[in-house]
Amino acid sequence: MSASGEKHSPLEQFEITPFVHFEVGSVDLAFTNSSLAMVITTAVITLFLTLSVNTRSIIPSRVQLISELSYGFIAQLLKDTVGEQGRKYFPFVFTIFMFVLIGNMVGMLPYSFTFTSHIIVTFALAAVVFVGVTILGFAKHGMNFFSFFVIPGLPWYMLPLLIPIEVISYLSRPISLSVRLFANMLAGHTLIKVFAMFVITMPFYSGVLPLAFIVALTGLEILIAFLQAYVFAILTCLYINDALHLH
Predict the structure, then answer these.
(1) Cβ-based neighbour number of residue 55 at 10 Å
(2) What pairs with residue 28 in β-bridges?
């Protein structure tokens, strides 16, 4: 705590601040800094993709080139993991990838808010993937979808032991998917804030080293922001593949 009594915590950057209070019954639907960050992320994605489509040319601009690379990256990812049947799920996977990626990048801007550092947001995204993939599995295979929990060639006497393990593993997917993204973004931003506090409180000659760490950590965090979006997308593709092909 500073001399003025103001708190400086590395975790205060993750606090939810309501801008517009709105309640429906006992449900709080306030528009917060997290909501604003999501709106900005959606606007950036929309503007980016709109500009890339409107400026198509034989010699692509930087915006068009990045857009085409993003499109091709997710298209190839789906083809490699799901096969030709994965084409119809491209809009879903591409939307999730871009939302997580741009959301992570927006959170890297000074005085911005990283909504992917909140477990409720990442769990909501993971729950959408989990429920959607489960519905897809039942729609394609019906009750035969439960055969997904039976390992082919497994002796019958091992079924009572391994089927519960397979079910628990399947039900834990949204938890692992959401915690991985949330924990990485939370830890990275917290570490940067800790070193930033060292730079502010230490003498100039002593603060050079923490400042160098901040520069290195910022570069690492940008890389992690992309990697976490990639991991979220590829796991979504793998879950879709499991729902379509079972094993």
Answers:
(1) 13
(2) 23
Which residues touch 138 (CB under 8 Å, ≥6 apart)? Answer: 145
Give 21-41 pLDDT, tens digit per residue. 777 777 777 888 889 999 999
Express each pLDDT in 143-179 by its tens digit: 888 888 887 777 777 778 888 888 999 999 999 999 9
Backbone angles phi, psi at 181, to 5 degrees: -70, -50
The DSSP secondary structure of 94-156, one letter per residue, reads HHHHHHHHHHHHHTTSTT---GGGSHHHHHHHHHHHHHHHHHHHHHHHGGGGGGGGS-TT--G
State the Cα–Cα distance between residues 34 and 44, nearest whole angstrom. 15
Q: What is the pTM of this model?
A: 0.87
pLDDT of 57 above 70: no
DSSP-derived secondary structure letter, 23:
E
Q: Which DSSP helix (H) or strand (E) runs through 32?
A: strand 31-32
3-state SS class at 216 = helix
